[in-house]
């Protein structure tokens, strides 16, 4: 996300770092480059102007001239101002003291509302909530069915127009979305769901009817949060769309979707500033787990290639089973061998964190390695997993059993070649050796290498 912008800004700062004292001309040259990078990334003109104005003023002040390292100080200022544009403090969902908490989703068709409904439901369930999804998008014939599908994946029930027929409607949906939304909230209250997520209809463009329907649903359900979902890839239109929705439905927060795309995405960065509404979440893919709380400070760090180690750690904590990790650590410390079966478990945990590319991208300084990251072949991980899965339990415990004919069988079973199998076994043996050494040295074992 924001790769191009990130690269441009990092390059600008690199040029700056070669200088000791900064003259006004140096600062102006830097500001110019920042301005160009932001504009090229589709950040709204008004936002760029305000941003560069603030950075320039601070950069010319004693804050920088008196600093030990002026260039670093400029980067710090840019970072702080960027955090400001993105909304400053992290803002989390507001829950009602008088449940159910009602969350209404609004936005253009294709923005990612239905997908977000599933992502939110899953994330809320993980936090112990009991969300109900309400299908108030009766515009698209398929919308109710689609919500049913994501709801099922999220493990949350759906309230749909024809009760008892959840998600089964395809082309015969008729009904009043306002009534459905209202009934959905009543249903949640009766069934003691503590959160209701209302999916509403979107159009391809902004139109009056759509806005009226959205504001009618809002008035009928009195939501605690109205989340405006915006596709980060829509470019300059983002600002106009956001303003139209701000006037039309007066949302309480923003969700940026499709941040995984390689689009310039800068327009989405303007939305918080232009509407004065905070960004609550970021959607980063089609899977329900591709979803993050939006932290303005961490996003600024990512854009400036300072890394987002905190999000990385949080995702790791979510994915890794502490008990399993302890068993593994004990096993290695006690001198027992780390087996291919253990390797498979670790790999599955690693996989559940999301794609390797996404994780690598969160490490500081990775901008320079972008090409390597982009070329990282996720399928390599698939291959390794397929190979280990094609082994028998006995083979995973004791790879020495794997003779020539077994190798051929494993290659066939995993759709790979015996060379692939040989390479994996060799790499595994090396990793095992390393872990034995570490165990002897008393250090904590890390992940055995599996990259090529
Ligand atoms: P809605 O019309 O607003 O309900 O939008 P949908 O939830 O149906 O999403 C439209 C399309 O965008 C679907 O194909 C989704 O799979 C896809 N989509 C939604 N969110 C994301 C995201 O964060 N990243 C990517 N790459 N695709 C997304």
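^ Assign residues to that structure.
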């Amino acid at each position: 996300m924001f790769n191009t912008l990130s690269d441009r800004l990092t390059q600008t700062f690199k040029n700056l770092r070669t200088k000791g004292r900064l003259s006004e001309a140096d600062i102006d040259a830097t500001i110019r480059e920042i301005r160009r990078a932001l504009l090229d990334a589709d950040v709204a003109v008004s936002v760029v102007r305000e941003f560069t104005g603030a950075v320039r003023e601070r950069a010319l002040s004693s804050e920088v001239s008196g600093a030990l390292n002026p260039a670093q100080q400029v980067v710090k200022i840019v970072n702080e101002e960027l955090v400001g544009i993105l909304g400053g403090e992290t803002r989390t969902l507001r829950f009602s003291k008088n449940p159910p908490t009602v969350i209404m989703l609004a936005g253009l068709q294709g923005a990612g509302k239905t997908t977000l409904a599933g992502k939110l439901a899953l994330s809320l369930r993980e936090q112990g909530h009991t969300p109900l999804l309400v299908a108030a998008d009766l515009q698209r014939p398929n919308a109710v069915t689609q919500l049913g599908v994501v709801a099922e994946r999220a493990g949350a029930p759906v309230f749909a127009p024809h009760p008892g027929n959840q998600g089964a409607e395809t082309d015969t949906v008729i009904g009043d979305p306002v009534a459905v939304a209202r009934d959905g909230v009543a249903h949640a209250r009766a069934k003691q769901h503590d959160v209701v997520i209302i999916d509403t209809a979107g159009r391809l463009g902004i139109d009056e009817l759509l806005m009226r329907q959205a504001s009618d649903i809002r008035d009928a359900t009195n939501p605690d949060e109205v989340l405006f979902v915006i596709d980060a890839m829509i470019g300059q239109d983002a600002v106009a769309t956001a303003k139209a929705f701000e006037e039309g439905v007066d949302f309480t927060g923003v969700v940026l979707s499709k941040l995984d795309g390689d689009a310039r995405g800068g327009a989405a960065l303007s939305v918080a500033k232009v509407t004065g509404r905070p960004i609550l979440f970021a959607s980063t893919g089609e899977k329900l787990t591709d979803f993050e709380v939006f932290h303005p400070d961490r996003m600024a760090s990512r854009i400036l290639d300072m890394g987002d180690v905190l999000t990385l750690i949080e995702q790791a904590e979510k994915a890794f089973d502490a008990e399993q990790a302890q068993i593994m650590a004990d096993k290695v410390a006690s001198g027992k061998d780390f087996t291919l079966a253990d390797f498979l478990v670790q790999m599955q945990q690693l996989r559940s964190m999301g794609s390797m590319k996404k994780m690598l991208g969160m490490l500081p300084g990775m901008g320079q390695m972008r090409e390597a990251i982009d070329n990282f072949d996720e399928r390599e991980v698939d291959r390794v997993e397929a190979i280990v899965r094609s082994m028998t339990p006995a083979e995973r415990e004791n790879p020495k059993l794997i003779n020539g004919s077994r190798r051929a069988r494993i290659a066939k079973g995993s759709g790979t070649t015996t060379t692939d199998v040989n390479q994996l076994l060799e790499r595994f043996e090396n990793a095992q050796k390393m872990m034995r050494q570490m165990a002897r040295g008393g250090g904590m074992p890390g992940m055995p290498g599996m990259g090529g």
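Residues 107, 109-115, 202, 257-258, 260-261, 283-286, 290 surround guanosine-5'-diphosphate (CB under 6 Å).
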